[in-house]
Amino acid sequence: MSLLLREKGRVSGAFGAGLKPGGGGLPDISESPAGARGGAAGLAALRDRVRRIEQGSAAERRRSVAPLGLAALDAALPGGGLPLGALHEIEGERAEWDDGVTLGFCLALLTRLERAFPKADRKILWISRQGDLYPPALAGQGLDPGRFLMVRARADHEVLWAMEEGLRCNRLAAVVGEVEGLDRLAGRRLQLAAEGNGVTAFVLHRRFRPLRRGREASAALSRWRVTAAASRDALDARFIGRPQWRLDLLRCRGAAPGSWQVEWDDAACGFSLAPALRDGSLAAQPPARDGQTRGGGVVDFRHAV
What we know:
By secondary structure, the chain is α/β, with parallel strands linked by helices. It has 2 domains: about 20-55; about 60-305, P-loop containing nucleotide triphosphate hydrolases (Rossmann fold, 3-Layer(aba) Sandwich). The protein has helices at about 1-15, 35-55, 60, 70-75, 100-115, 135-140, 155-165, 185-195, 300-305, and strands at about 65, 80-85, 85-90, 125-130, 150, 170-180, 200-205, 220-230, 245-250, 260-265, 270-275. The strands form 2 sheets. The protein has a 9-stranded mixed β-sheet with strand order 5-4-6-7-3-8-9-10-11, sandwiched between helices.
């Protein structure tokens, strides 16, 4: 009996010194000054980690970029160019499937990517719903058709599956997929796959029907809207002028939205500002909503044709 009383007193003394029953002999940090300081330090570390995630990690700030060759665009993008190893969304203003401006802008970005890394002999995987990519057009854009791997898919879920599988192959330079829509979960999976292997992904929104609801929340690093604009007459009136687009950067992680009206030079494989906007007046304005006009000679596509 005396032995049991002595053991009971020993356990009671231990609990009184800051131990909890069933805690395996661990001190209760909430009841000791040192434990309180440790908890406060842990909370501060957690807050700092959340802040770094929101602002972008150091690895993300050191992400490789492909300069677009236009100072106004590169200065607006994080790191001075199009971030690589990430997911980018490109949409057009029109709902028709044959809206070629999204395709043209994506090819222009691929051209700039190849110029940034000319020695990287890696393929480009293109997953298409319609299979209407024209090889001579690729050559006219400065791209080698022999470097393209074409996949035909029947539905969005097949396109997304093929994109995710392709992004796991680090021997590809880029993966392009044509879809009607991209939800946040699918976008997050593609973004993580692109970051994991350093392969750049492009999602082209090419729809069979008009968009009836608002845009889905995007997990992509950037989202662009491309609108066709009237090109200038070439010196020889028998040919049309250079492609001219209004680029709206709707969102970009680490950058502010912006708008530019640019021309694409096939021969130089580079962008240039439209002559009327070389003063940069358009870049300071937010992207225009559908049906609104904008200064500097830029109007909504439906009013420009």
